[in-house]
Amino acid sequence: xxxxxxxxxxxxxxxxxxxxxxxxxxxxxxxxxxxxxxxxxxxxxxxxxxxxxxxxxxxxxxxxxxxxxxxxxxxxxxxxxxxxxxxxxxxxxxxxxxxxxxxxxxxxxxxxxxxxxxxxxxxxxxxxxxxxxxxxxxxxxxxxxxxxxxxxxxxxxxxxxxxxxxxxxxxxxxxx
Length: 176
What we know:
GO terms for molecular function: altronate dehydratase activity. It holds the Pfam family GD_AH_C. It is a single chain. With 176 residues, the protein is of the alpha/beta class. It has a domain at 72-162. It has helices at residues 2-11, 22-26, 32-42, 72-82, 110-115, 126-129, 133-151, 158-162; strands spanning 48-52, 63-66, 87-91, 103-107, 122-123. The strands form two sheets. A three-stranded parallel β-sheet has the order 3-4-5. The chain has a two-stranded parallel ribbon with strand order 1-2. Helix 5 links the parallel strand 4 (103-107) and strand 5 (122-123). The longest helix is centred in the C-terminal third of the chain and has 19 residues, at 133-151. 22% of the residues are buried. The model has no long low-confidence stretch (mean pLDDT 84).
């Protein structure tokens, strides 16, 4: 998957190292490797069940990877095209767009959650202030319940409430 994406960049005369977005760089990520480590962590301990090309449709349950750009709008559109029914979108800077499907926005810091109440569905920044195992378990349960409530239609995400439904389609050529 990585080699194929590197070849794709090379065909268009671009460097894979340019893949972290400007927002990633401002936020402190300087390489594609650093960005990838964050993605790996978000997968938890699940085994990867399928790897799809951009625009491919998932045929298996479990953790499915979509090969595509690091750009938020284009990347999430590829996940939704693959069959994702809910995107849990972590953000530390606050990408203001909604996506083509329900997007549960998880803020990594409370300052952003307070500043962008109309965009953020869940403030994960409170975890930084409460470091005990008990607080972590309670927080994990709250997040799990909030995601399930969203999947079950009991909670509508901010992008649904606001009517924000954008998408970005990967074009022939490199999207940074």
